[in-house]
Amino acid sequence: MSETKAEGLSDLRAEIDRIDREMHALLMERGEIIDRLIAVKAQQGGGSAFRPGREADMMREIASRHHGRLPLDTVESIWRVIISTFTYVQSNYSVHADLSGGDSAMRDSARFHFGFTVPLVGHATPAGVIAAVAGSQRPDGGGDLGMIRAGFHAEDDRWWERLAAADAPKIIARLPFVERPGHPAGTPVFIISNPLAEAAATDVALYSARGRAAPDVSGWGGLGCEILGQSEGDGFSLLLSVPGDWTVERLKKLPGGAALETISWIGSHAERFALSPG
């Protein structure tokens, strides 16, 4: 009886070893494809290695098909690290994180989504992150990424206005892609990069809006306009999240929207995938 059980365990362990070897071989094969991808891109004149729309589609597919004993947290993190690391070996970049709201949550989010191979650089303010990303742009289209908390900041911090210029960095993603209760890196963050010529995700659009007098925004949420940032110091300033097909004209038609004197598109991101507790 004990001999049969020992043989059974040995067979199972051998099967696990086989799977581990195959997974490693597939990762190395993926790396060889990246080498070919780099060569093709060089022939075509380069371009950004970031593909936020494709990444979001991959994560939705993984979350939708996942089942079994292995926690989705682990699977999501593994794939995020694979994607981010292979992007890094394709075109080196750093992640600049806004630590103004605390260090631990942002570092957890950065490590969950980007792993330990991609360098992480902390900044005391969102402005520091935006300046670092803007200064990282390379002639080949490469550059760094920035992480800024998606929630409210200090009352006088209008960081989103720094994204309004046409050549300023823009929001390209909102993490985590997969939302669920108890997410190990659940702090909502925006990812910014220098403007992408292609491959942007456009399900949700972000706008910076300014005016002299604050409008009554109490009913805007029910109309599809989410206010993610607000400041009423020197006039009022809003960070607005709306469906991707909304235009400046659509925003001005909101109740009180005529008070929005300056409206600037500052990026877009994929619709997040919400997973129920069950």
From TrEMBL:
Enzyme class name: isomerase
Phylogenetic lineage: Bacteria, Pseudomonadati, Pseudomonadota, Alphaproteobacteria, Hyphomicrobiales
GO BP annotations, alphabetical order: chorismate metabolic process
GO molecular function, one term: chorismate mutase activity
EC number: 5.4.99.5
Residue intervals of the Chorismate mutase domain: 3-94
Domain of life: Bacteria
PROSITE patterns: CHORISMATE_MUT_2 (PS51168)
Gene3D superfamilies according to UniProt: Chorismate mutase (1.20.59.10)
Source organism per UniProt: Rhodoblastus acidophilus
Protein name from the UniProt record: chorismate mutase
